[in-house]
Each structure stands twice: as structure tokens, then as C-alpha cells.
Amino acid sequence: MPRRSISLSEPNHRWIAEKIQSKEFRSNSEVVNDALRKVRERETGIESIRAALIAGEASGISNRAPDDIINAVIEKRRRDGAL
Fold first, then answer.
1. Is residue 1 domain-resident?
2. What is the pTM of this model?
3. What's the CA gap between 44 and 41, in Å, rounded?
């Protein structure tokens, strides 16, 4: 695994030390890798939302009634096993 040397602010240094002291993590690397993984997951979620918004805007205005749209979404989620 590649090694990196980084500088941390004092509050971040203390936070990492607290996480290790609490036995939540065993090393600085575990804390940093977990934090980076969470940031990457968040960014992926944001990108998914952004793509859905762009697709929605590009699709134009719907002629369907709001209740019809809601029912179609519910039915699709049932078919996909999400409900």
C-alpha cells in the first residue's frame, strides 16, 4: 500500500487520537482511510443526484398528473424490489 506523509491541523490530530484511544480504530491510517471512504461515498451520492437532476431537466415538462407520477414511481420500486 502506498505511504504518504500528511500534515494535520491540531483539532484533526486530536480527533484522530481520540478515535484510536477509544479503540474505534487501531491506527492513524485506519481513521484517515475510513474518513476518505465516507467522503468518496458522499461524492458518489452527490454525483448520482446531480445526474438525475440533469436527466429530469432534459426530459422536459410532464403532462402526467402528480398522483400518476407518484404511482408510477411506487410501482417501479416494487418491481425493482426496493419496496
1. no
2. 0.70
3. 5
Helices 10-21 and 28-58, axial angle in degrees (round to 10): 110
DSSP letters for 54-82: HHHHHT----S-HHHHHHHHHHHHHHTT-
> Range of 71's domain?
10-79
Cα–Cα distance measured from residue 47 to residue 24, given in angstroms and rounded to the nearest whole number: 30
Answer whether 75's CB lies under 8 Å from 68's CB.
no
| pLDDT score of 83 | 85
Residue 36: inside a domain:
yes
Q: How many residues appear in the chain?
A: 83
Count how many domains the chain has.
Answer: 1
